[in-house]
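Annotated sample (chain length 280).
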Amino acid sequence: MPKLIDSHAHLDFYTDDQAEVLNCAKAAGLGGILAIGIGDGPETMHRALEIAESQSTGDLEIWASVGIHPQEADKASEENLAKLRELASRERCIAVGEIGLDYYHVENPDIATQKAAFVAQMEIAGAASKPMLIHCRTSLLATPEAKARYGDADAEADVLTLAEAHWSRFGIPGVMHCFSGDLEHARKSLDAGFYLSFAGNLTYPKAVGIREAAAFAPADRILVETDAPFLAPIPLRGQRNEPAFVAHTATALAELRGIATEALIETTTDNFRRLLGLSS
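Output written by the structure step:
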């Protein structure tokens, strides 16, 4: 029976109790974690890869990604992109991300800067033959100030448009990380060749659209994640999230799809390994 994989966790954010967090993940039945390498910005985006290269074991495999988050898009300098390119070439780095567009926070870089950083990183991922992990957050639920700044711009539409122009030619899959859209966005993302990764917000009462998308998505295109230390699932909402809690999201997703949790674990683990080109 395959073990559960958390397809998106910020392990480098656990600065005081990382070993305990990893032990809890093992105890919860996890077999792997994808550590997301955005750090606190490009200057520390190497930290996740250092964890993957030093902490991965037979009991709990750890892989890494590397990327410049859209909130840090104004730091996508030639120097930092060169650093990303080098990190992405390493064996334990299996994806580029999380990258994309974020029109939610008013203090984020302007749209043109975000788009340029996204495109540059898609080119790096494509050249390295590594899947990309997409961060996509619209201004729909943002503050009035953010809505005023970003206007009618739609991050979901912009991500898909840019991916069609700059990513599709590589023939490499990608992931809509922490999928938070509705059924229409899910259809468009799936049509574009992306996987949908569901996090703890799947379990929140108001997340009707996310649950509709989760029930609809084909079995061979779904993943589960924590986005830890953020977005702890019910019944742990409000606590600091950690990879062990992905089991709650997996159970909720299985119930939505009318299958046993064991079957959901097998499906999502197989999907993860196929997507990232890992042996079973």
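Annotation: Residues 34 and 42 are 18 Å apart (CA to CA).
Annotation: The chain has a mean pLDDT of 96.
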